Amino acid sequence: MDHLTAEKRSWNMGRIRSENTKPEILFRRAIHKKGYRYRLYAKNLPGKPDIVLKKYKTVIFINGCFWHKHENCKRGNKPKSRNEYWDEKLEKNVLRDKKNYAELKEQGWNILVIWECEIKDISKAVLKFEIFLEELEN
């Protein structure tokens, strides 16, 4: 059972941003400090990636653990109420992600997903990113 009223829950959900989230901003600042330059939210690419590094033909998605069903992550748990609604909603997100990733790969883009929980240790997230780019070069 939800401890919030329907109105309060609706208000909370309406406040969730899809762009310029805290995890995105933290990650962008960290890679910018390292000298990487990028574009944001390429509307012409499938899935409107959060970060686009043209130089490396790479797109980065900063995915929320809840919204994109991060497996084996405590932040990825769905609510206890309205199971059918949340199952359908979150599964659609995952299927849309897979479709977008496939289209991006067809267009020759490299894809990196950074999960919200990985941003908690920003140095590890940046290391994951740098290892990813290093492997592309080899």
Major pleated sheet:
4 strands, mixed
- Counting DSSP E segments of at least 2 residues, the number of strands comes to 4
Q: How many helical elements?
A: 4
Q: Approximately how much beta-strand content do the residues carry?
A: 5-15%
Strand order of the largest sheet: 1-2-3-4
Low-pLDDT regions: none
SSE order, as H and E?
Answer: HHEEEHEH
Could you tell me how far the N terminus lies from the C terminus, measured between alpha carbons in angstroms?
52 Å
Instruction: Provide the gyration radius in Å.
Output: 16 Å
Oligomer type: single chain
Describe the structure.
- The chain has 138 residues and is an alpha+beta fold.
- It is built from 4 helices and 4 strands, in the order H-H-E-E-E-H-E-H.
- Strands 1-2-3-4 form a 4-stranded mixed beta sheet, sandwiched between helices.
- Helix 2 (22-33) crosses helix 4.
- It is globular and about 50 Å long.
- It starts with 5 loop residues before the first helix and ends with a helix.
- The model has no long low-confidence stretch (mean pLDDT 88).
